[in-house]
Amino acid sequence: MLISDKQKAIIALLADGQFHSGTALAEALHISRSAIWKQLSGLAYLGLQHSAVSGKGYRLERPLELLDESKILATVDEPTRASISCFEIFDQIPSTNTYLVERALENSPSGTICLAEQQTAGKGRRGRHWVSPFGSNIYLSILWRFQTSPMAISGLSLAIGVAVIRALKLQYGDIFALKWPNDIYYQDKKLGGILVEVSGESDGPCAAVIGLGLNIYLPETEAAEITQQWTDLRQITGQQLLGRNVLASALLNQLLLVISEFEEIGIAAYIDEWRGYDCLKNKPATLFVGQHSYDGIVKGIDNNGLLLLELADGRTQAFASGEVSFSNNSL
Fold first, then answer.
1. Do 93 and 119 contact (CB within 8 A), yes or no?
2. How far is it, in rounded angstroms, from Cα 200 to Cα 207?
3. Which of these, 255, 319, 318, 245, lies nearest to 289 by C-alpha position?
4. Which tens digits make up the pLDDT trace of 284-324?
5. 284 neighbors 272 (Cβ within 8 angstroms)
6. Rounded to 10 degrees, what is the CA torsion of 58, 60, 63, 65?
7. Partners of 318 in the beta sheet?
8. pLDDT of residue 315
9. Statement: residue 223 has pLDDT above 70
10. Residue 263: pLDDT band by 50, 70, 90 thresholds?
11. In what order do the strands lie in the sheet with 284-289?
C-alpha cells in the first residue's frame, strides 16, 4: 500500500509529537474530521502509532524528523555539493539500491543520490530483506561511475565502512565498530549495513551503487523478524529525537569524499583505519562461503581487505567474501 498525499500531509503536521485537534487537522487539509480519522487509521502499516485523547486531539507516539532536501544540502560541504549531480528523496520506494541500479542502466550520471523515508523491498546482503519502517532510519544509495574494472574497486565496501564510522564519530563519538566485510556495529550488535552492487565490463569502466541502511529508531514490532542482535542510535544515545537531516548530511560529506578519491588512492589508504574499528579480530568465528563453513580465529584483514582466518589446523587462510559470525552467537 502506497502512502497517500493526505497521509503524508497529516504525518508532517503531527511530526512534532504534540497534540493536534481533529478540527485543526481537518481545516489544514480541507477534509472532514471523519476523513482525518480514516487517514490516521491507515498509518499503522507504516509502523507509525498514534494516540487520540478526547479534548486534545491526535498525536504520534513519537516525534519524527522527515527528510528535507534543503536541510540536508544546507550543511554539506562545498566539495560534496559539487559532486552531487542528482538528489532525490522518496516517501516510499521498493529499494534505493534497486532504483539506482536501474538508473545506472539508463546512463544516469555519477553522483546521483537517492534517499527514502521507507523501503518496501529493502535489500541486505545475500538477498535478505532489510527492515525499513517509515521515517525512522537512513536508507541511502549513491551511484558512482569508475573508469576502472570492477575488480579494481573490490575493496570499496571496506572504505565505505570507514566513511560511515567517520560520520558517526563526528556526531556521537568514537564508540562504533566494523564487522567484516560491511556491517556497522556497536557493542556486538548490528547498527547498519552496506551493500555495494557493481556492474560493467570486466576491464572497465564500471558503475557502483553504494547503499547504506542505518538504524536510528527501529520499533520492536518492526524488528521482530530480524534474526541477529541489533541496535539503533536511539538506544545508544538515549535521545528521543535524533537529527536525521544533519546525520544524512554528515554521511554524504564522508561518503562522497571517500568514493571520489577511491579510484586514485584505493583500499590501501583505508586499511589501517579499518583495522582500528575491527570488532572481529582475535575472536572465534564461523565463516560461511556458499555451502561451506570454516571455523577459526579471525586474524584481521590483509592489505587487500581479505579476511584472515586461522583454521583448526593452524593454517591462516584469506577469504575474499563470505558471511562471518561470532562463534556460539547469532551475530
1. yes
2. 6
3. 319
4. 999 999 889 999 999 999 999 999 999 999 999 999 988 89
5. no
6. -100
7. 308
8. 95
9. no
10. very high
11. 316-319, 307-311, 292-301, 284-289, 323-326
C-alpha cell at 156: 570499496
pLDDT digits (tens, 9 = 90+) for 88-104: 999 999 999 999 999 99
How many C-beta atoms surround the C-beta of residue 30 within 10 A? 9
| Among candidate residues 42, 6, 38, 10, the one with its CA nearest the CA of residue 24 | 10
Contact of 234 with 265, CB cutoff 8 Å: no
Cα–Cα distance for residue pair 237/246, rounded to 1 Å: 15
What is the rounded CA–CA span in Å between residue 252 and residue 223? Answer: 26
Would you call the peptide bond into 181 cis, given omega within 30 degrees of 0 as the criterion? yes
- What's the confidence (pLDDT) of residue 329? 45
* Residue pair 37/214 in contact by the 8 Å Cβ criterion: no
Cis peptide before 109 (omega within 30 of 0): no
Confidence of residue 141 (pLDDT cuts 50, 70, 90): very high
Three-state secondary structure of 273-311: HHHHHECCCCCEEEEEECCEEEEEEEEEECCCCCEEEEE
Structural domains of the chain sorted by starting position, each given as residue range(s) with its CATH number in brackets: 5-60 (1.10.10.10), 69-276 (3.30.930.10), 280-326 (2.30.30.100)
Q: Which of 121-130, 231-240, 290-299 has the lowest mean pLDDT?
A: 121-130
Cell numbers representing residue 263 in the block:
579510484
What nine digits make up the cell of 47?
509502523
| Residue 136: predicted pLDDT | 87
Task: Answer whether residue 1 shows pLDDT above 80.
Answer: no
pLDDT score, position 126: 56
Helix or strand or coil: residue 68? coil
Calpha distance 168→166 (Å, rounded): 6
Nearest of 153, 144, 267, 158 to residue 210 by alpha carbon:
144
- pLDDT reading at 331 higher than 50: no
What the block records as the C-alpha cell of 281 is 579480530
Cα-based torsion angle of the residue sequence 237, 251, 103, 154 in order, rounded to the nearest 10 degrees: -100
The secondary structure of the chain in percent helix, strand, coil, rounded to multiples of 5, reads 35, 30, 35
